Structure formats: C-alpha cells, structure tokens
Amino acid sequence: MSEQFKFAKRTNWNLTPNRLSEALAAHRAAGKPLLDLTVSNPTECGFEYDSSAILDALSSPAALLYEPNSKGLESARRAVAGYYADRKEEVSAEDIFLTTSTSEAYSYVFRTLCNPGDELLIPSPSYPLFDFLADIQDVSLVRYPLLYDHGWQIDFRALEQAITPRTRGVIVVHPNNPTGHYVKHAEIAKLNSICSAQEMAIIADEVFLDFALDGSRAASFATNTGALTFTLSGLSKISGLPQMKAAWLIVSGPQPWKAEALARLEVIADTYLSVNAPVQLAIPKFLEQRRAFQKQVVLRVRRNLAELDRQLAAQKASSRLVTEGGWCAVLRVPAMSSDEDLAIGLLTEQGVSVHPGHFYEFPSDGYLVVSLIEPEGILAEGVRRLFQ
Ligand SMILES: Cc1ncc(COP(=O)(O)O)c(C=O)c1O
Predict the structure, then answer these.
(1) Is the CB of 247 under 6 A from ligand 1?
(2) Closest Cα to atom 7, ligand 1: which residue?
C-alpha cells in the first residue's frame, strides 16, 4: 500500500486552518465570551419567525407522492414567478429551475457553460465561496476589480482586458457581498454589449436583491434579454431560511441561446432531481415568510448602521464605505498591520470577531467587514471595542 492515495488534483486544497480560524477555535475552546460581528446565519440572530406556519408548510399530504420534474414542481416554480411578479417583473415558470442552494445553481451553470479550464470573470472584492465552487467544476476564476470612489463600480477596462478566448461568462453579485452595491443600469447595458458580442453569459447572484437600505427596488437580471443570462437566488437570504435548502436559477436572453441553455440545463437538473418534495411544496408558504422577515432585517441593518456611524463620528482613524444594500458594512481602518493580524488582535484582546478584508479579496490591507444583522446590543458593544 503506497503512502499517498491518489485523489483528484482538484481536491488538492490546503486545508490547514489559517491563523485567525485557529485563534477563534482556541478562544471558543477556552470558553471565553465572544462578540461575533461575522454572523451571517439569520436563524441565530433573534429574528421572529412564524414557526407554526413554517413547520405546517412542510407537512403537505402531497409530499407522499413522488412527481419527478426536472425543473421542480410547477406549483413551486409558479410561486417563484409570483415573487418576481410582485416586483413587477415577468418571469415564466418555464424558465425557472429549482435547486437546493444557489451554490448548486452555480454548479449547474458552470457545468452548462464551461469545459475544464474555461474561465469565468468574478468581481473582486466579493464573496469567498466561488473558489471552491469553481475548483469542484474545473473552472478557472479570473478576477475583475471593482473600484471605490464614493461608491462601487465595475472597472470595465480591467474587465475587458481579463477576457480571453476561454472566458465563458461574467459573474455579478447584485448587490455584492460585502460591498453592498447594486449593478447600475449603465453597467448592465455595458455588460450586455460585451457579453453578447463575445458570446459570453452573465451569471447574476441576487440573494440580497431585496435588502436595499433605502427601500428602493432594484431591477432583477431575471428579465434581462441583452445577453444569455442566468439569475440565481433563493430562500436562504430572501426569507431567512438557509436550513430549508431551496433556491432557483432563471434563464433569460436572446433566442435561440436561451432555448438551448434551457434544454441542456434540463438534462443536468433531471440527473439530480435534487430538491425534496416537502420543501418544494412548502416554497409558496416559505416565500410568504419573506415579508415579515425582510421588514425585520432591513430595520435591524439600518439601526446597526446608524449605531456604527454614530460611533465612527466620535473618532477620526476609521471610516465606513458607502453601502446600498445587503447585510454587512465595510470599514476602512488604519493599515498598521495586516488585516489578519488586526482581526486576531481584536479577537484575543477585545473578544470581538470580525472578517479581515483579505477574506473577501480586498486589494490591500486596511479593511474589515462587519455583519449588520446581529442583535443591536452586540453590534454596539462590538464596535465600541473595535474603536477602543
Ligand atoms: C453572494 C452570495 N451568494 C450565495 C450565497 C449562498 O447562498 P445559498 O445558501 O443559497 O447557497 C451567499 C451566502 O452567504 C452569498 O453571500
């Protein structure tokens, strides 16, 4: 027997925990109190859920029947189409695929678009899960920078320079996590013209679409027809129900590309048939839950942001970047040490956990990311210790 079993190269990840995770594990193991400003799990933030409506929704007698449908049960897809109709956006249930998560939806799209080694452009800074998703699907990620100048925007010069003959699409996160900015109309037009000319797709992640701070309603990519477009969203953020594993993928764009994409995706989805019946049957009711949930989240985020700003106003060293939506704030802090050292210091000396900017691929040190969905007292005390 050889020492080393031969695993697939795509799984050759460096799995040693980084210094911050080690410090966090040690902090927890020692039973020390922690003010966690990184929480993203809404079920742990003290929001009120209608427990009986949620649990009742899972016990439909129709779940005793197996009705395989590659796109997912029509009743559930109609409810998703209804969610867009409520936003005054017309999406056909026929263009929707149900998946267990947006991560799974990404994998369907990557598999539909990319041969091994093909490239997808992703925003930087952004959400760190993409690297693993891409590795698992043998896709290479190429970053395009977002520029900050009183707000975020796509650096189109850099984006266009990043395109190679192997580029199959551009990922946008609308609004982006953690920068909290929406893709603007002019940017959508430009993305459409670049992508349609080069036969590339747009992949739009809209899990935070409904969480605009000013209550405005940003248009979804789900009705975008200027380029082949895959729009991803789901209940983990929209209704605060990540444990239910219910998400979706919508195809739009010019015919015949759209028809071809639907047909190919149907084979992938039919191979897995991954969403279970009780959850599919519950989707209409789970979507209903979003109204009460989103009200609470937006109120919490606004209050936490106001508290953060109040404390920022009392000092000069740090500031906050402009945000339009989503669940976090980005702080610009003095780059006296690496962001990782800063985060470790805050943990060990103040008992506060924050995400260092490099976790989201910020281009330099001097950025910390804090969640805005934790209970207000925790945010207020955590931030007070940050600025001590
Ligand atoms: C931008 C973004 N997309 C997708 C996800 C994951 O969503 P899901 O639970 O549906 O896989 C997250 C989770 O934080 C996210 O921040």
Answers:
(1) yes
(2) 102
